Amino acid sequence: MSNEMGAPQTGRESKRAQFAEESGRARANNSVKILALVAAVLVGLAVYLVAGSGGEKASSVVGAGDGTVRAVGGEVSIPVSELSGKARFYEYKTASGKSVRFFAMRSPDGAYRAALDSCDVCFAAKEGYRQEGEDMVCNKCGNHFHSSQINEVRGGCNPVGLERKVAGESLSISARELEAGASYF
C-alpha cells in the first residue's frame, strides 16, 4: 500500500487507513438507519393523525381541546349552529375517566336530538351507530332507526336517548345523565 505521497505505508499507517475506511462505512450505515427510523416515525405520526381524527366522531368546539366535551355548571352545551341533519359524535369523560360517546343532530322534523352511541341490546359490542341518510344504523346488528324517532322510541336496539333542552343558541345535556350512561361503555 502507498500513502498520499506514493510512498509505501507502514503497518501502522495501513491499519489506520483500514480503520478510517471501516469507520466511515459504519457512519454511513448508521446515517441510513437513523433516516429510516425518522421516516418510520413520521409515517406513523401521519397515520395516527389521519386515523385519529375519525371524521366527525368528536368535536373540540365545546371541548377541552382533546376531542372531548366537558361539563360546565353540570351541563354539556353544544352550539345548535353546529348541528344539522348529519349526526355529530362527541365524547364525554366521566369523573372516573370513562369515555361516554354520544351524538346530537337536528332531525328532518326540525327537532334537536341526542342519544348515547349505544343501545340496550348491542352495547356490549361497543360498536355504536353510523348514519345512512336520515337513519341511524346500529353497527353491530344493522338495524335502522329514523332520526326523528331518537328520544321518542326507547328500548331494544334504539339509540339510548338523552334528555336535552335548547336554551338560546345551545343544546344542553345534563352531565349527570352522561355519567349514568357510562354503564353502556
Could you explain the architecture of this structure?
A four-stranded antiparallel β-sheet has the order 2-3-4-8, with no helix packed on it. The chain has helices at 11-53, 175-180, and strands spanning 75-79, 88-93, 99-106, 112-119, 129-132, 135-138, 144-146, 159-161, 164-167, 170-174. It is built from two helices and ten strands, in the order αββββββββββα. Helix content is 26%, strand content 27%. It is of the alpha+beta class and 185 residues long.
Quick synopsis:
With about 180 residues, the chain is an alpha+beta fold. The chain is about 25% helix and about 25% strand.
Helix content: 25-40%
Sheet with the most strands, sense and barrel status: 4 strands, antiparallel
Helix and strand string, N-terminal first?
HEEEEEEEEEEH
- Order of the strands making up the biggest sheet: 2-3-4-8
**Coarse shape:** elongated
Beta-strand percent range: 25-35%
Low-confidence stretches: 48-67
Gyration radius, in Å: 29 Å
Termini, distance in Å? Answer: 75 Å
Number of helical elements: 2
Average pLDDT metric: 78
Structural class: alpha+beta
What is the number of strand segments? 10
List keywords for this structure.
alpha+beta, 3-stranded antiparallel sheet, 2 helices, 10 strands, 26% helix, 27% strand, elongated
Give the secondary structure arrangement, pairings included.
Layout: H1 11-53, E1 75-79, E2 88-93, E3 99-106, E4 112-119, E5 129-132, E6 135-138, E7 144-146, E8 159-161, E9 164-167, E10 170-174, H2 175-180
